[in-house]
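Final report, results section. Input specification for complex C-07:
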Amino acid sequence: MNTFPWLTTLGVVPLLGAVVVMLVPKAKATVAKQVALVVSLATLLLTVLMALQFKANSGSAFQFTEHANWIPSFGISYSVGVDGIALVLIALATTLVPVVILAGWNDVEPGRGSVKGYFALILVLETLMIGVFAATDVFLFYVFFEVMLIPVYFMIGRYGGPQRSYAAVKFLLYSLVGGLFMLASLIGLYVVSGQHTGHGTFDYLTLAALHMDPNVQKMLFLGFFFAFAVKAPMWPFHTWLPDAAQQSKSGTAVLLIGVLDKVGTFGMIRYCLPIFPAAASFYAPVVIAMALIGIFYGAYVALTQKDLKRLFAYSSMSHFGFIALGIFVFTSIGQSGSVVYMVAHGLSTAALFLTAGFLFQRYRGSQQIDDYSGVNKVAPVMAGFFLVAALSSLALPGMVSFIGEFMVLLGSFQRYLWVGAIATFGIVITAAYVLRVYQRTMTGSLAEGLSGMKDLSGREVTALFPIAALTIILGFFPAPLLNVINPAVHRVMTSIGMVDPAPTVAVSGFEGTAK
Amino acid sequence: MNPIMASAPALFTIRSVDYRAISPVLIILAVALVSVFVEAFVGRSARRPVQLVLVFGAFLATFIDLITLHATRLVTAAGSVAVDGPALVMQGAIILLAALAAMLMAERMVDPSGDPFAARASSLPGSVDEAEFSARGYFQTEVWPLLLFSVAGMMLFVSANDLLLMFVALEVMSLPIYLMAGMARRRRLLSQEASLKYFLLGAFASAFFLYGMALTFGFAGSVNLGSIADAVSAKPSQSGLLLLAVAMLSIGLLFKVAAVPFHQWTPDAYQGAPTAVTALMATTVKIAAFGALMRVLYVAFGGIRWDWTPMLWIVAILTMVVGSVIAVTQSDIKRMLAYSSVAQAGFILVGVIAVSGKGLASVLFYVIAYGFATIGAFAVVSVVRDASGEATHLSKWAGLGKKSPVTGAVLSLLMLSFAGIPLTSGFIGKFAVFSAAIANGATWLVIVAVIASVVSAFFYARVIVLMFFSEPTEATASVVVPSAFTTIVIAAGATVTVVVGIAPQPLLDLVNNAGLFLR
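Structure output:
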């Protein structure tokens, strides 16, 4: 097969780009931005080229694999590779980065910190995001997982809103708590693998093939799951998210919620299930309960928010409930749906936060919902994009999020009728707060300060258009997505020894429309 | 076989000493003596260059000597000196770190008065004499012989295979440091208080060690670690005497590593001492003390590990928790680093508790990684100044990263290493120590350590917040441009932290190949 180191190249390009951006003289901030944009587009192009060579039904667990010893004393290697799930998430990340760079072109006012620093941090973060999804050595994954915090910490802390350092520290400490418990589990896993195979290893496939004692699994699972639940974030470990979202720049929030938080749910399906299958089924009822509470709690709190970004943060928490639910009902449809939902949520989050960011910039940076109304009178294009984003968030049929949400619910019904039934009500609340926000900000009579507000500029439309287009195209034509995801999900199901409940009419009918 | 008896006059025999194997210590001691004579006979203006050549020449020669000795594994001088892998690795680390600390001591560009040390340590603070000496532009150079004696003591401390020799080495190491701690040029009263406190508590701890040694002798009839181990395994029934002896010896050594509850001297000594001396205390002394602690516990009392590990569990938990929690409340960077060093000592104790070859190797790795990061951090502290001298109060650090991005970035990196963020040496150290502990069943201890790490991350992150996320104010200190000496130290600290963080295998090989203690 091809031996070109696709994933390493993909990771190195943004990193080199960040170095170049930092080397640009301070006075030429525009050049730094242009370099960042070109580098991120090049990375996207590389991703597309790589994805075209991905073989959906290749039979091997990972493709584009690379392997090199890193710290042999601890059995640690630099091993990367992607399955369908990792591939779509990498594609999500590399798609959103240029969008965020373009949208955040003027986010850093001169004098409010180094302009090139912000764009360099975005590129560094892109490298780490690619790495975290591509790693097939659990230690390597952990390294990316933890190091990712540092650029985000600086992006919130240096460039965020008035309460930025509080939000940044809260974010860092919450994540570190999760990460360090994961470290304890990781070391435990290493020691257990040493007992099983004679020499400790972090190789994912070796670890997934271990038959660990269920009681050991139950302990180690907790460390991993806790880290992922904080990251995702699931109720009740979510309290850092609203502050981080509220205080960070829209671009930072997009990368944080749209991509980074997916690492949490990605970690559950990649690590928690296949490595600790017995523990996963043992804890599944608890996780499903947490997910259900998250769906309703997030949606309910979102209803009461006055700050638009906090509202989006709580709404995301509700969506993460759906994603986690799909993973832990242990059905193929549910898990595939979760992965689709991750992509969909990344896109809709980006559209919401970026449109909102454009809106705030036009009215003294206020994030209060009450300060806005009747925007569609003066800025119809902006209102249009906001509507698409909002409808995507409430999973209107025709949007890719509908595919995800519907599959998750279907998977839940298959396994536990009542869980599915309860979760379905979450959709209603989601529709309530999303439509209410649209109605209050975009329709009605024009708010006083907004007269003369400019509609979206060409740059802003260029940034938003690809997201809106993808949301709709994948909504009508999800086959490319499902084709690469399904084999990977099938492998996860096999590794946890689960089979789908007997198919029903609804399932086959649904697959007919999807393909 | 009994060294104490053998040295009695009636049975006097000349024991063969492998001078080659102990030559590193001898070189340092010889140069230290020469250095004393330089103080007496060389003219005032020439003293400093001569001393610097002597000191750095001695360190260089010793380091080369250690490299040529790297494969040596023997016990010599009537069984009282063990030249083994762990001792050689620690001696090498001590030499390197002492050389870096010496560079901080030699720095003259940072303090406007020209030197970090008092013109005459004997003059009373605020006295006419002091003003006179300063006005005449006197600088003192007595720190150099003191430094060399102290380093010789440390090197002997980590290879002493005999409690008596260990005690002598302990004092040779400590006494010069007590003196140096009191020699700061500015804030002299604070410095002298630090010195006195360190000395008194140190003397107290030495007394514990001596008492423990006497009890051990009562139990084993010997002070040689190997003979003690034989006696311990020969008497299966445990005696209270033995346990008391272990406790007393441990207290003496835990004092030096600054473990809770024997840590009270640390913040005052770290804050008051000249920063260069603090750097020496925080790095080399810590390495030496952990070396001696492990040698005593592993070699002499390895047979009754189940009796002393519970004690160490309690000490380790207290050290991690108290160190981390109290560090959160500090408002002075040197005191914060002092409590951080207490917390770090707790993490290292987790590795000691593993009582295994892996544990030993992980502790070696940790103290070396920690040593380089710490010396870099103190070097940064020494260049952040305002009109009153070093600006150690944290409020003066607000916005420093915006005024001096490079300095801020380096210190942030070192803080991230202390906090154990991946791709820094501190993370690999924590990983090594924790994995050794879990492999030996100390899972709950590691979970406590993980929680303490989170607490410690808070105050390390706070420094970054202050430097980068706060706006500079009127009171914000500025970074003085130092000479090459301090620059080298800062660069070395940062480089080792990153390189060992990304490619730790060479250092891991070094500590893994060091093997076990000889007896």
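Residues 505-515 of chain A have pLDDT under 50 and may be disordered. The CA atoms of residues 334 and 410 of chain A lie 7 Å apart. This concludes the modelling results for the funded period.
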